[in-house]
Amino acid sequence: MKREEPKPKTCCPPRTHATLVAPSRIAITKRSTATFELCSIPGGTALVGTDHPFIPIDEESPGRHKEMQPFRMMQTTVTNAMFKAFIADTGYITDAQRYGWSFVFYQQLGPNQPPLQTTMGSEWWCKVDGACWNQINGPDTAEPVQDDHPVVHVSWNDAKAFADWAGGRLPTESEWEHAARGGLGDVAFPWGNQEPDDLNFQPCNIWQGSFPTTNACTDGYAATAPAKSFSPNPYGLYNMCGNVWEWTSGRFRLNGRSAESKQHAKHFKGTKILKGGSYLCHKSYCFRYRIAARTGSTPDSTTTHQGFRLVFS
């Protein structure tokens, strides 16, 4: 039976500040003496994309081969503890702090939170004043930041600033996919091809249940999990799929010539590529927690489920 391709839906990351004029930010130069746990990623012929796309309009296909130099990648996403050290050393102010707000998933709001502005078509995203990397769900919740969890509410600009300080860089999409596959070939996930489900197999932190109303939390987490949790892939990398979306260095470009493709491309004009999906992904809505899956968001967008990791040449 021929599979009916799903119609593309607005993916998890909403756009934050795309229509605003970005305030000035301080220049960051390498000052870090921090060390990170790194995994060695071998070079050679790398696979990028797939010949078995699930969302073709995102141009997940075709699978193609690319020669790649070896590099090192952070074992986990950047954690709150790492980002705290960066802030203490540089005095950097994130985009969310500059604008004074960020997007928070509605189920993470505090009990006394007043009515909020939401995102059309993705009403589960609420604009919360004061939400930022160290006030994840806004000042009303006063939820403590957990040092070993991924830092969130970080824009592409913020990730780039951290990379400049740390002496690393954001990975390319090709590097990210090559590392995520762990040498397993054309697999859908970092552990192979077995799909996560809502009952018996939870190898990563995604949504279980009916999005966006009921999360069974079968995997143990309603929001982020520790950056080093679940089993690593064969290269030793944790949470390459699920937990938080990860910024990469490249622009999200789409080259399709159909009217539908061109309209889809307009939606992503000026965006940067995000990979890996997050704790809010579910196959029924956003099946983008696969290695070849991709989406984009503007460089100053921030939410409770976007993070990053670095590579070092």
Write a structural description.
With 313 residues, the chain is of the alpha+beta class. It has a domain at 39-89 and 147-312: paralog of FGE (formylglycine-generating enzyme) (Alpha-Beta Complex), CATH 3.90.1580. The protein is 14% helix and 18% strand. The protein contains five helices and 14 strands. It has helices spanning 80-90, 95-99, 156-166, 173-181, 259-267; strands at 38-41, 44-48, 64-68, 71-74, 101-105, 118-119, 122-129, 209-210, 214-215, 245-251, 272-275, 295-297, 306-307, 311-312. It has a four-stranded mixed sheet, with no helix packed on it. It is globular and about 50 Å long. The model is unreliable at 1-8 and 18-24 (pLDDT under 50).
The total of helices stands at: 5
Q: Runs with pLDDT <50, length 5+?
A: 1-8, 18-24
Counting DSSP E segments of at least 2 residues, the number of strands comes to 14
Terminus-to-terminus distance? 46 Å
Shape: globular
Rg over CA atoms, rounded to whole Å, is 18 Å
Report a brief summary of the structure:
The chain has 313 residues and is of the alpha+beta class. The chain is built from five helices and 14 strands. A four-stranded mixed β-sheet has the order 12-11-10-13, with no helix packed on it.
